[in-house]
Every structure is written in structure tokens, then in C-alpha cells.
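Contributing new records

If you add data, match the layout below exactly. Sequence lines come first and carry their own label; structure lines follow with theirs. Keep one chain per record. Anything else will be rejected by the validation script.
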Amino acid sequence: MTLVMALALFLVAGGHWAMLQGVAWATMVRDYSRAGSLTQAVEKTFDGKHPCPLCKKIASARAHEEKAPVTVKADKKAE
């Protein structure tokens, strides 16, 4: 039960986006280091000017998720 609660908290807090972003950054460093030094690859990865397709999808999905309000339906009963 504790594991389920921890997983739910992780997802609600946006942990899945952080994990995906980490994968995207690691892939970008690997790809950029093939054409230059590791230092240049890290700079290019984190300068914000060279987002990869996964980074763009993550940013789009996060923006869409933030715009969509969380709603809870509450049925009111007449008393």
C-alpha cells in the first residue's frame, strides 16, 4: 500500500516529466558528444537553443497539463 501511495505522489508531483526530461538530456549529451567534445555537448544540451523532439513534446505536454484545471464534480443534494 505504501508503494502505491508513493507512486501516486510521484506522479501527482510531476515525477514522470522529470524522468522523461532526464532521458532526453542524457540522449542529447550522447548525440551531441559524437560531433564534438563532452563539454560542448553539455553546453549545447542545456543552453535552451537546441531542444530535441522529446524536449519539445515534454514542454508541450506539461504546458497542456498546467492549462487544464483539475475539476472535481460534487453533486449537491437538496435538503
